[in-house]
Prior knowledge:
Layout: H1 3-20, H2 25-32, H3 36-44, H4 51-60, H5 65-69, E1 84-86, E2 89-93, E3 103-110, E4 127-134, E5 136-141, E6 144-149, E7 153-157, E8 162-166, E9 171-178, H6 179-186
Antiparallel strand pairs: 1-2, 2-3, 3-9, 4-7, 4-9, 5-6, 5-8
Amino acid sequence: MADEGIEDLVRQRLRGLRMALGFSLDELAARTHLSASTISRIETGKRTISLDMLLPLCDALQTDMATLLDTTADTDVVIRPVASKSKGRTVWHLTRHSAESSIGALKMRLEPRRPRQRHEPRVHPGHDWFFVLSGTVLLTLGDREIEVHEGEAAEFSCMVPHVFEATGGPAEILTIFDRDGRTAHLGSRHD
């Protein structure tokens, strides 16, 4: 990518991040110790971008230089999940496995447990969220048992002993978890 193309991309990203975070030019100026007019001129291409300006902008916009300057093309953005089965669950990984990824997403089909078969609640770092696509999921969270029905979601800290399973028939869920939860879930097939 030519230098001009990179500068345009960086300008778009700076403005996009500022807008996404809800910062006005004045608010970003206060966070970076740059003037609002300087930031405006950077975003519009009327001022050359220098490293001494990018560092405080990256800090204030909660990004890093590598991400801001990354020109890697997303050539294949479509993920083609492959089902894997284990312990009464079918799992489809909906995100790519990479060290940079801060979240993970799975689709799971949960089969009801057999009598006398019970997964033990686990604890691990992280935060989980799931949405019930179909069926009913029994979430054991500490001392509580919570039924989460089709169209409902649950969000919880994984530092509370937890396990979730289908009740009354098969259930399908979409689950999203942070980096710590991702590490725990990719190493295991049950919660």
